[in-house]
Fold this sequence. Notes:
By secondary structure, the protein is α+β, with helices and mostly antiparallel strands. The chain contains five helices and ten strands, in the order αββββββββββαααα. 19% of the residues lie in helices and 21% in strands.
Amino acid sequence: MHNIVESLPSWWYHSAQVFKQEQEKIFAKQWIFVAGASDLKNRGDYVTTEIAGRSIIVIVNDNNELGAFYNLCRHRASPLCPKTQGNIPMFICPYHSWSYGLDGSLKGAPGFVLNAEDGTGLNTGDYGLIKIRVSSWNNLVFACLDENGPSLEDWLGDISVIAERFPSLEGMVFERLLENEGAMNWKTYSDNSAEGYHCLRCIEN
Ligand code: FES
């Protein structure tokens, strides 16, 4: 005999309004997996992805550390990196060529004087790329839009202890991303992934 657990109301699975709230209350608050560490090994390696509808960049900086930023130029908010993955020596905006170092600092802005002593022009300290929290664990890279949330370590909690019972992901290479598109909400897919009923049938048969 199994306990019956009711699923969510059906309209939650297709309501744009519910999804908007989920973006802000769940995905914008949590650590989200963004890349395998094997994609971010060398200075200038970057990946772009989306968290809660915002485009972000994760990149290896000059100190071989991970950095993450919103994928938006500070001038007119053009996306800086249109590709999903690559290697760049610095960020150069495709719109009007503002340039940024791999640490996100503004390096050049054609037509503007930078850091003028008389206070005119642009202060580069005010126009660096907007940073996002980034951290890695077990060869997996995560980013978080919420500045005030827990550390990745605290957020993972017991998962890191449980993972010790399994082979390390160290040395594994990210192979490919599988995308399934359909007229469905993300919860339909995750519910189905967590669904054990079909497995139970296999065992019982
Ligand atoms: S929008 Fe990037 S330089 Fe103008």
